Amino acid sequence: MTFLRSFRSNPQILLLAMAFVMPLVFSVWNALLNNFVVEKAQFNGAQIGMLQSLREVPGFLAFTAVFLLLVLKEQTLALVSLAVMCVGVALTGWLPFELGLYCTTVLMSIGFHYFETINQSLTLQWLDKDKSAHFMGQQLAVKSFASLLAYGAIWLLMEWAGISYVAMYILAGGVGLLIVIWLWFGFDKFTQTSVQHKHMFLRKRYWLYYGLVFFSGARRQIFMVFASFMMVEKFGYSVGDISLLYMLNYVFNLFFAPKIGRWIHKIGEQRALCIEYLGLLCVFVGYAWVDNSQLAAGLYVIDHLFFAMAIAVKTYFQKIADHRDIASTAGVSFTINHVAAVVIPALLGVVWLTSPSAVFYIGAGFAVCSLILALNIPDQPNDGNEVRMNMLRWANAPSVASPKENS
Questions:
Q1: What is the rounded CA–CA span in Å between residue 397 and residue 406?
Q2: Which of 14, 86, 197, 307 is the most buried (most CB within 10 A)?
Q3: E strands, 152-309, in order
Q4: DSSP string, 274-338
Q5: φ/ψ (deg, to 5) at 197
Q6: How far apart are CA 361 and CA 366, in angstroms?
Q7: Residue 326 and residue 196 in contact, taking contact as beta carbons nearer than 8 Å
Q8: Please, are residues 279 and 218 in contact by the beta-carbon 8 Å criterion?
Q9: How far is the C-alpha of 150 from the C-alpha of 29, rounded, in Å?
Q10: Is 395 a residue whose pLDDT tops 50?
Q11: Does residue 70 carry a pLDDT above 50?
Q12: Highest-confidence range of 27-31, 173-177, 224-228, 240-244, by mean pLDDT?
């Protein structure tokens, strides 16, 4: 009974459990999507593009999560969001037509993005600053394990057992929903250490964090959209080859993400991010030059591994933030991140038609911008010591939303 009580009352275990459910369900949706919409819904390129655009809209509107906190506690909203995502995935197979898929995709995406927003907020609030980097590495490892489990289940159940898309979607969403229900009743309702602000704002002293988040989103789109597309278009990678690359990425995260978290805590955010951005600069230039499929695959794995170091952006914010700002700023940061997600693929898709290499050179430019910003992170960031050089002379000015409010 003592063990059970300590289990129920440990918020870190709840965070890890929620981190397991999300990719377990989402990975099934994501892995099956392209085949499902083509084989069952006969989607063309325009319809797939519209579906992906609709999927990003809830991410762009993630800042609205703060308004739900007026009526729901963060722990409750996180679990409700997970449940909504699971329901969206479970319904996907039942609606294999254009409007149905648009609706289930938006439903799934609302749950996914609200959960990610609140999960980030809870992690930064419930973890001590000296433990958060290592814990976020553990979260990445748990997510990687769940994704590997999902891919293995798809291969085993669909390739060998021959179950249908409908059954696979229902199984993934149903299992996820059952786990969420267990988490709802199986854990205590944890109290917040401070009352969170329930309104929107931008604080000028967080400008460096906002900039890092924006360029992180821009670079990630190049990795997710154009690096993967290059593997298929230029090197002829099959679906199986791409799946193996994904699995290799997750295996690396499973084993190395916790170590990366401890390493970030040891050397500090500024050094970790500078190393990440220098590495990504080399990777993007490598993408532009590479003519060997094995070398391209190696760059792809290294690229994914560098993104695990983005933990440092979150821990930097945790150290400089007023604790009451975390929930609202988590929503704002997701919106800033998704500004790039909405704009970058469309703009660089046009560039790709004439010069694929130019797309990756632009990605290298994003990495340089991130590096310049990272160099302005102080060695010991904290509330009142947000930047190394106060170049704009307004980093500590009052809030945009409320001039009277102390920033």
A1: 8
A2: 86
A3: none
A4: HHHHHHHHHHHHHHHH---HHHHHHHHHHHHHHHGGGHHHHHHHHHHS-GGGHHHHHHHHHHHHH
A5: -65, 140
A6: 9
A7: yes
A8: no
A9: 10
A10: no
A11: yes
A12: 173-177
